[in-house]
């Protein structure tokens, strides 16, 4: 049962909302492993196999990951852009997750910060940190009941835009909770509204080395 909780935390750490058309008016809201410091524009909607997000204002978006909802992990997230400069962008994000299945019941609270640094018009670096806290786990296991768990990740991603329709994303991340390191890359092709991202990565999780495919399909309009 402990492994089930760790898997849920790991999915929560990986959950993100993807990007879209690649130009200065529609900057990527997520790189390979992590969200960027950019948000959807006011009134924009992003929907895909997993992510669903809405731009409440030009610097504020809210969303959920529908794949987690299907797994009975109800979740909601929000991101606000505090600084959006030519050479530096900073955003903060918060998230809430409720999980209830069999003898496992918990709520998770997440906070994070995202930094995006344009190196030149085609290349950006993205970094930040996220922290997920799960207080007082309600599990029918005396070795784990009443304890708390945390999940923390420190990522470093890059974004290389070849043109308005193609980009290469990649990076690495260290998961403090799982004492694991992951690295990967993906290719993004964007039409006017439809986007396709394919790639993958390798990482350690609970003592195992895993291949983690990246398959993203979404619309932004």
Q: Flag low-confidence runs.
A: 140-148
Strand content: over 45%
**Alpha plus pi helix count:** 2
How much helicity do the residues have? under 10%
Overall structural domain count: 1
| Global shape | globular
Class computed from helices, strands and strand pairing = mainly beta
CATH-assigned homologous superfamily: monomeric porin ompg
Q: Which CATH-level-2 architecture?
A: Beta Barrel
The CATH class: Mainly Beta
How many extended strands? 13
Cα(first) to Cα(last) distance is 41 Å
| Series of H and E elements | HEEEHEEEEEEEEEE
Main sheet attributes: strand count, strand direction, barrel closure: 12 strands, antiparallel, barrel
Q: What integer is the average pLDDT?
A: 84
What value does the Rg take, in angstroms?
A: 17 Å
Q: Spatial order of the strands in the main sheet?
A: 1-2-3-4-5-6-7-9-10-11-12-13
Tell me about this structure.
8% of the residues lie in helices and 61% in strands. It is mostly beta strands and 221 residues long. It has one domain: Beta Barrel (Porin), CATH 2.40.160.40. It has a twelve-stranded antiparallel beta barrel. The protein is globular, with a radius of gyration of 17 Å. About 4% of the residues have low confidence.
What is the element layout, followed by pairings?
Elements: H1 2-14, E1 45-48, E2 51-57, E3 60-65, H2 66-70, E4 73-84, E5 89-101, E6 104-120, E7 123-134, E8 138-139, E9 149-163, E10 166-175, E11 180-190, E12 194-205, E13 208-220
Antiparallel strand pairs: 1-2, 1-13, 2-3, 3-4, 4-5, 5-6, 6-7, 6-8, 7-9, 9-10, 10-11, 11-12, 12-13
């Amino acid at each position: 049962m402990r492994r089930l909780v760790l898997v849920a935390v790991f999915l929560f750490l990986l959950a993100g909302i993807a990007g879209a058309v690649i130009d200065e008016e529609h900057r990527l809201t997520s790189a390979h492993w992590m969200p960027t410091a950019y948000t959807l524009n006011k009134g924009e909607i992003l929907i895909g196999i997993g992510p669903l997000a809405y731009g409440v204002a030009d610097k504020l978006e809210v969303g959920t990951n529908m794949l987690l909802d299907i797994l009975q992990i109800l979740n909601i997230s929000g991101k606000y852009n505090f600084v959006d400069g030519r050479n530096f962008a900073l955003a903060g994000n918060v998230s809430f997750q409720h999980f209830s299945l069999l003898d496992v019941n918990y709520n998770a609270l997440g906070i994070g910060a995202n930094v995006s640094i344009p190196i030149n018009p085609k290349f950006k670096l993205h970094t930040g940190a996220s922290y997920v806290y799960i207080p007082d786990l309600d599990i029918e296991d005396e070795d784990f009941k009443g304890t708390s768990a945390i999940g923390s990740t420190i990522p470093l991603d890059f974004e290389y835009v070849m043109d308005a329709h193609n980009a290469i994303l990649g990076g690495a991340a260290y998961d403090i909770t799982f004492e694991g390191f992951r690295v990967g890359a993906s290719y993004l092709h964007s039409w006017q509204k439809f986007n396709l991202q394919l790639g993958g990565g390798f990482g350690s999780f609970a003592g195992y080395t895993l291949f983690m495919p990246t398959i993203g399909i979404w619309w932004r309009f």
